[in-house]
Amino acid sequence: MVVLDDKLWFPNPDEALEDGLLAIGGDLSSERLLLAYRSGIFPWYNDDIPLWWHPNPRFVLFPQELLVSKSMKQVIAKNTFDFKINSSFKDVISNCKNINRKEQDGTWINNSVIDAYSKLHNLGLAHSAEAWQDGKLVGGLYGIKLGNIFFGESMFSHKSNASKFAFIKYAEELVNEGVVLIDCQIYTEHLESLGARMILREEFMKVLNTNI
After folding, report:
1. How far apart are CA 26 and CA 173, in angstroms?
2. 35 CB neighbour count, 10 Å cutoff
3. What would the mean pLDDT of 187-194 be, rounded to a whole number?
4. May I ask the CATH architecture of the domain 2-56?
């Protein structure tokens, strides 16, 4: 595992440890983040230290493989939620920071993360997909879009099915924009139910390199 300094670089993804950890340290400048995503690398934080990951296999969703259950089709048909894109980015990432997650002890999203991704949002590269109900933000997700790849970062839900609704609607929008792969990074049962699956690093990088 490599310890990064101020120089703008990352090691070869094949050097990642078995759990996917590739490097530690560095910063969350827009330049470093964009280099990371273009290299298939994503950050998590641990005790205020950036950790950089490139797991193998990789959990992804090919948008044409999106699965929408009968119950979710009913939710969508009933207009239970309103769908918006980029109307409240900072609120989405703040909710992702504060939501309680059964599978996690705390959150990796700190103020440095919020500031870094807000800068990318201002550059038109970070986006939020949102579920609204009665004028209130009740679910959503955010991530980075580069070329024809969307790198999902985190999602939250305050109402049942709200985050699924936002994900489904945004996946359909991304298809219209020509996106060929949604990077889900790490396995969750929630996203598996929507059609996400594991692929090997070699396949992931091939798709990445031909679509950014």
Report:
1. 34
2. 14
3. 95
4. 2-Layer Sandwich (3.30)
How many Cβ atoms sit within 10 Å of the Cβ of residue 92? 27
Residue in the structure block whose two tokens are 């798709």: 207
Q: Name the strand (E) or helix (H) holding 140.
A: strand 136-146
How many angstroms separate the Cα of 85 from the Cα of each of 15, 63, 130, 148? 37, 17, 6, 17
Residue pointed to by tokens 């929507």 = 194
Helix (H) or strand (E) holding 107: none
Residues 4, 23: contact at Cβ < 8 Å? Answer: yes
Place of tokens 């109402």: 159
CA distance 47 to 108: 9
Determine which helix (DSSP H) or strand (DSSP E) holds 31, and give its type and residue range: helix 30-38
Residue 109 contacts residue 154 (beta carbons within 8 Å): yes
Cα–Cα distance between 54 and 21 in angstroms, integer? 6
Sequence-distant (≥ 6) Cβ neighbours of residue 197 within 8 angstroms: 59, 60, 61, 65
**Taking the model in full, what pTM does it have?**
0.95
The pLDDT tens digits for 104-154 are 444 679 999 999 999 999 999 999 999 999 999 999 999 999 999 999 999
Q: Which fold has domain 59-209?
A: Aminopeptidase (3.40.630)
The DSSP element (H or E) to which 13 belongs, if any, is none
The residue ranges of every structural domain in the chain are: 2-56, 59-209
